[in-house]
Structures are given as C-alpha cells and as structure tokens.
Write a structure and sequence with these properties.
Blueprint (H helix, E strand, L loop, with lengths): L17 H6 L5 H8 L6 H10 L6 H4 L12 H4 L28 E2 L5 E7 L23 H12 L6 E6 L7 H12 L6 E6 L1 H4 L6 H8 L4 E7 L8 H12 L3 E7 L8 H13 L3 E6 L14 H14 L7 E4 L8 E2 L4
Parallel strand pairs: 2-3, 3-4, 4-5, 5-6, 6-7, 7-8
Antiparallel strand pairs: 1-2, 8-9
Helix pairs in contact: 7-9, 11-12
C-alpha cells in the first residue's frame, strides 16, 4: 500500500528541471531533521556519519515519507546514523572486489560478455548501504582521451556484447555526454545491448526527458533500463509517468532491490513492491543480499531468513514477479544464486 502523506517540502516537480532538482538535494542533516520533525537527540550522530559518507536526498523524495517517523522505510535508506561506526568482521571498503577488475579508468570488467562504465560518480541520493560508498571515483573519471582508451578496450574484445552504464548514477551526467558516448558504443559492431542502471526514474522522474529518450533509443543497440527500488512507497504518479515513457519508447524495464533489515525484509512488503512495479510496466530482476561494505552492517539480513522470505513470495506471486535472490562475491564470474531449500 502506498502511504498518502502531506508534503513535507514544497515540490515543484512540474516546474523544476532535473538539473535543478539534482542540485537542490538536501545535504545538511540539520535541515533534514527539521523538515521531517525527527528527534534531535540523533542529530549529532547523523552529523558525524555525514562526515564519512555525505547525506544527499532529493527534496521531492522527502514528500513520500511520513513526517516524524524514525522508522520510515524510505528514510532509513539514506539517513546517517551512529551504527555506521560499528566495525564488523568481514565488512570492507571493497566488498565485491572491484579494485582488481578495473583495467581502465571508468571501466569494470568482472563478468563474461559485459562491461560496466562508471559514467558519473554522482548520485541523486546517497544510499547508506551502497557498496561503492568507498569507491575511488576520482581515479575513475576519464577525460575525452581516456574514454577513447576505454572504448578501444571494448572494441578489442569481441566477447563483449553488452555495455552497462553505471556510477554513481549515469543519469546524473548530461544528455550531450551520454549521447556522444552511446554513439561511440554503437559503432562497435559486437556490442548488441545498452543497459543503464539508474535510480533517477524513481527519485527525479523529470530526468526522463525527450533528449534522454532519444539517445537511449535512437541507436541500433537494444536498450534496457534497470531501476533500483526497494519499497513500494518510493513509487508515485510522477515515477509511473517516467516509467511509462520509457516503456512506450521500447525500453525493457527491470528492477533490482537490496534486502535491507527494517526496510523491506518482509514478504508482504516485497510482494507489494513487485505488484506495484508490474503496474508500472517493470519486472522484478534481482533481490540482492547486502554487500558487506564498511558502515552498513546494520542493514544485513541473514541468508536463511532471506531464503524463507523468497520462498513465501514464490507461494503468493506468479513466477515472473519473483526476483532472483542473489549475492555478489569477489572473484566470482557471475552473481551467485541463493538456494531456497
């Protein structure tokens, strides 16, 4: 069920450009606490945690939260808290081993047949469980000449059939940059699919503008958009409009979620999410176990419990609405499926 709440911030979704919404995101913990009427006793910890991984959340996303509710499932995903300082065994700065699969600036090549391009280090929102919260974006910000070297790497490996635009969030980059990059990718004959991983259609729906739809769909490449949504309350009418535009333009729409303690570790919540996504034309794709990144241990859900949750989803949803439960392991050649029984 989508909660109906009174707007916390004045929203100008129909007037603001996506660039204005992105630039106007809340980055000050004190401002966030005041807007949401949060208990100020937690503010000092939020300020300290903000220094290690900065707060960022779009203002219109705040309107989807329940004012004064410390346990709001959307709030929990980006609010800096004291538990981030609890060091736990097995939690590292590079939980999926990307340091060893970064052969060119801006390029990650872990899996056969596909590569990932770090197009932008910026995001519309800083998720506290992000496995790249410690990623060296400064070292992976190619200039024009370095992008040429990266594209040469792809062109020289005929096994690569899919290029994934990631980040950060690739849609934080300009349409002109993305358009030029896609044209160069499309000029590589053995690349067949362009995949974009983005939170923007959910967080800042106006990012899906005419120029975005044009570069995404006008090349010979098969376009796929993988959004990231963890809870049905993230989805509103504006998001639905953006997703409809993508679907009507011929973009395949998938969703991946992370299983997060206190946010969506419940079969009813995940069932509602799958059904809401499908109403907007999006198919569930992956449900990830938490990547064990420093600062996010409080989000972890035990694998056995995760398996039971998905087993219940199988009993109550058609198969096409059940996401694959997976985890990512450093050095593995693919996502690792989790056995349910």
């Amino acid at each position: 069920m989508i909660l109906e709440t009174e707007p916390v911030c004045k929203s100008k979704d129909t007037e603001e450009t996506w660039q204005q919404s992105l630039a106007g995101a809340i980055t000050d913990p004190k401002e966030l606490f005041e807007l949401l009427d949060l208990n100020l006793k937690h503010l000092p910890a939020a300020v300290q945690a903000d220094k290690t991984f900065s707060l960022r959340v779009p203002r219109n996303f705040i309107n989807r939260m329940v004012k004064g509710d410390w346990n709001d499932p959307l709030l929990k995903q980006f609010l800096p808290i004291a538990q981030e300082f609890d060091l736990q065994p097995g939690y590292t700065a590079d939980p999926v081993g990307e340091k060893n699969t970064n052969p060119r600036p801006g390029l990650i090549h872990k899996y056969h047949g596909r590569v990932l391009l770090i197009v932008s280090g910026g995001c519309a929102i800083n998720c506290r469980y992000c496995f790249r919260r410690h990623f060296p974006y400064a070292e992976n910000n190619p200039g024009r000449q370095q992008w040429s070297s990266t594209l040469d790497y792809i062109a020289n490996d005929s096994s690569i059939s899919e290029v994934i635009l990631s980040g950060g969030d690739p849609l934080a980059a300009s349409n002109s940059l993305l358009s030029g990059l896609v044209q160069q990718i499309a000029a590589i004959p053995h690349v067949k699919t362009l995949r974009v991983h983005s939170r923007m259609p959910v967080l800042i729906p106006q990012r899906i503008d005419k120029e975005c739809l044009h570069w995404l769909t006008s090349s010979r490449l098969n376009p796929v958009m993988v959004i990231h949504c963890n809870h049905a309350n993230e989805l509103n009418e504006a998001t639905g409009t953006a997703l409809s535009q993508l679907r009507n333009a011929g973009v395949t729409l998938l969703n991946q979620s992370v299983l997060l303690a206190g946010v969506n570790d419940d079969p009813t919540i995940l069932r509602n999410l799958s059904e809401r996504l499908f109403a907007f034309g999006v198919l569930p794709y992956y449900l990830h176990l938490l990547d064990k990144v420093q600062g996010a241990a409080h989000f972890d859900v035990e694998q056995d419990h995760a398996s039971k949750i998905v087993a219940e989803l199988i009993e109550t949803l058609p198969g096409y609405l059940v996401p694959k439960l997976v985890k990512e392991q450093a050095g593995a050649r693919s996502k690792t499926p989790i056995s349910l029984y």
